[in-house]
Amino acid sequence: MIRALALLLLMAVPAAAQDFPAPPRVAAPPPEQIVAGLSRDDVDITTSFDGSDIIIYGAIKRETPIPPGPLDVIVTVEGPTGPVTVRHKERRFGIWVNTGRVSVASAPNFYVVATTRPLERILDQNEDNRYRISVPLAIRAFAGASEVEDVVPYTEALVRLREANDLYRLDEGAVLLADKTLFRADVRLPANLIEGYYATRIFLVRDGKVLNTFRAPIEVRKVGLERWLYRLALEQPFLYGIMSLAIAIFAGWGASALFRQFRRS
Questions:
Q1: Sorted alphabetically, which keywords does the UniProt record give (predicted)?
Q2: What is the DSSP string of 69-85?
């Protein structure tokens, strides 16, 4: 009897074991990984702010020998995004009028791409579409129905305007890569930045494919008198307007009094 019960128990154990799910597979780490840092993770905007430089540096961690083929690094810094309306004007009967408009749902206020080599030579187009690395792909989506048939000229115009203001930039060759292991990129931030969090992305690229990515934030904020005036304009616009008017009146009166004094002398 005891032998029969033991036999039944042994036969039941394999069947019960099949009810338990297999342990999840742990994904193997990529053969090459980015280990990076920033010279600073915040930027203070003061009344005398004329731009800043961010140094992005790092190394490539490997568990195996360096694979064959060229290795490249791409660094992007993206500012706060928001909606933008792009209008096309034409001169008709001596008057400039709007003839078309495209509403962009999301476009970064600032966007820079720094690379080790020309971008089109190191990045596959499918990878660019996937990670949205190049400057034109930084414009995410369109809002509502478009008033024009072709929106490409409008997005190109937006890119040109922001490139002219040093807000969109492609810095090819600005990333230095030493011994296929150490890299450094100096990213210049212009004076016309806005407050917010800026996203830094680093891409490790080989044979046109993205092997690994790294992300880090940068906080840009106004400080001192600049921040006080900025918050006052947002939170109490009426008081800000009265104060601006009083300053303008006082400045005008002071200039007039000074001019009269010079005439008398």
A1: Membrane, Signal, Transmembrane, Transmembrane helix
A2: S-EEEEEEEE--EEEEE
